[in-house]
Amino acid sequence: MIDFSEWFHNILEEAEIIDSRYPIKGMNVWLPYGFQLRKHTLKILRNILDRDHQETLFPLLIPEDQLEKESIHVKGFEDEVYWITHGGLTKLNKKLALRPTSETAMYPMFSLWIRSHTDLPLKIYQIVNTFRYETKHTRPLIRVREITTFKEAHTVHGTMEEAEEQVQEAIRLYKEFFNSLAIPYIITKRPPWDKFPGSNYTIAFDTLLPDGKTLQIATVHNLGQTFSKTFNIKFETPTGEHEYAYQTCYGLSDRIIASIIAVHGDDSGLRLPPKVAPYQIIIVPIIFKEEAEEVMKACEEIRYRLEDSGFRVKLDDRDIRAGRKYYEWEMKGAPLRIEIGPRDLKKKVVVVARRDTKEKIEIKLENLEEKIDKILHDITRMLREEAWKKMRENIRTAPNLKEAKKIIEEKKGIISFPWCGNEECGKNIEEKIKVDILGVSEAKKKSSCINCGKEAEYKAFLAKTY
Ligand code: 5CA
Ligand code: ZN
Questions:
Q1: CA-to-CA distance for 150 and 131, rounded, in angstroms?
Q2: 219: which of 113, 153, 315, 364 is 20 to 30 A away, CA to CA?
Q3: Bridge partner list, 242
C-alpha cells in the first residue's frame, strides 16, 4: 500500500461500500454491499448490548434551550451544530438543533422517568444518525458531517462507584466487540483538555491505520453528576433522601467500518472478517461446454447445503471469465471462494481459496461444512493476530523528546513515554514536538517524566491522529 489515503478512497468506491459523490460535503451514500457490511457489524454490537441495555429511539431534533442548558457541553459543540430555523416559510420561535449527540435530547426525559432508586440502573442505547459541522478535512467514514451509524449508550446509576463500574463494563463490552472484528486497540484515559465536553473523564480506544496515524474508534465517558444536576435527574434513596444520579455514556461511529476496511485491507483490496462479510463464501463454477449443466447443478446443491448450515453464500453464475470473478471477490474481501469444476466433481472434492493467505486447499465434499467452519474461524484468528502484531510493532519507546519527535517524523506510529500527568507539562510536550498526547494508562514501573523529570505517574502515548 503506497498511499493509504488514496487506497482507502479507491477501495470504498471499487468495492462498492459507499458513494462519496453525494453533493453535500461530509455526507455519503451507503451502497448495497457496504450496507450489508454495516448491518452485520451492527448485529454484533446489538447482540452484545442487548444483554442488559434496552434499545430506544429519540427524536433527531433538539430545542435550542435544551441543547444550551449544560454550558460546558454546549461550549464543546457550539461550532459544530446544524440549526433548523424555519418550518416552510415560517421562522421558528425556537431554533431546533440536529443532534450532534443525544445527551440533551435524552436527559430531560430521564428526569421524568427516574423517581426512585428502584428505577436504577437505567441502561439504554440507540443507533442513529448524528450531525456535526466538522471544520477539519472530511473523509468518508472517518470524519463525516452526517455520522450515519452513531451507536450511543447512556446509563444512570445511584452511586459514583456504580458509574465507575459501568465505565469498566463498557470497556469490557467494547473489547469484546473489537475482538470479534479482529481490530486491535489501545485503551487510554484522555488528558483533561481532550475529554468529552461535560464529562469527568474520558476513556478512549484508538487503533493504528496503515499510514501510521491513529484513529479514535470508541469513547467511554464518566459524566458524574454534571448532567443530572443540569437536567434535574434525581431519585429517592432507600432512606428517603433525594439525590442527583450518576451517569455514563459511551459511543462508536462509522469509524468502525473504516477500521475494518483499513486495518485488514491489502494491495488486492478488502479482507473482511467472516462475521461481518456480506458473503462468507463465493461459489465459482468452472464450466466447460459439455459438463456445464452438471457443474451448475452441483454448485446449486452445495450452495443450499452451506446456506442450510447458516453460512452466507453467493453463487456467482455470471457469464464472465472465472478469473475476473476471482479478482472482483478478492477485491471485495470475501473470506472464502469455492471453485467447482467437472474434474473436482468426479473426485468428490472442491477447491477452496482463502482470501487472507491466498492459499488453495482441496476439501472432500463429505466434510465440507465442518472444514469450512474451521477455516472461517482460522481466518478471523489470523486477521486478529496479524493486526495486533502490526500495531504492537509500531508502539515504540523514546528516551527523550527529541528522539520521540524524530521517531514520529520518520516512522510515525505510537510513542509511549513516562509522564508526570501535569497539565502544563503535557501542553508543553505537545508544543515542543507538535504532536498530540493521545492519553495515559497507569505507570507500571517507577520512572521520571520525559519532559520535566518529576516522578512519572503515567505511561503516556503520543501519535499523529486522524
Ligand atoms: N455522547 C458521547 C458518547 S456516545 C459522544 O458523543 N462521544 S464522542 O463525541 O466521543 O463521539 C463518539 C465517537 O464517535 C468518537 O469516539 C469517535 O470515534 C466518533 N466520531 C466523532 N466525530 C466523528 C465524525 N465527525 N465522523 C465519524 N466519527 C466520529
Ligand atoms: Zn512532566
A1: 10
A2: 113
A3: 236
What per-residue confidence (pLDDT) applies to 444? 79
On whether both 443 and 307 belong to a single domain, the answer is no
For residue 100, give the CATH number of its domain. 3.30.930.10
Is 249 a member of any domain? yes
CATH number, domain of 288, equals: 3.40.50.800
pLDDT for position 287: 87
Confirm whether 405 is domain-assigned: yes
Task: Write down the pLDDT at residue 328.
Answer: 98
How far is it, in rounded angstroms, from Cα 420 to Cα 268? Answer: 45
Q: Pick the residue whose CA is nearest to atom 15 on ligand 1.
A: 218
* pLDDT number for residue 291: 83
Q: In the beta sheet, which residues pair with residue 440?
A: 189, 460
For the chain, percent of residues with pLDDT exceeding 70? 100
Mutate to test the pocket of ligand 1, among 178, 220, 255 (most ligand atoms within 8 A of CB): 255
pTM more than 0.90: yes
Q: Which domain holds residue 292?
A: 281-375
Give the residue among 40, 48, 15 at the shortest CA–CA distance from 312. 40
Task: Using the mean position of ligand 1's atoms as its centre, give its distance from the Cα of residue 317 in Å.
Answer: 42
Alpha-carbon distance 228 to 282, whole Å?
Answer: 52
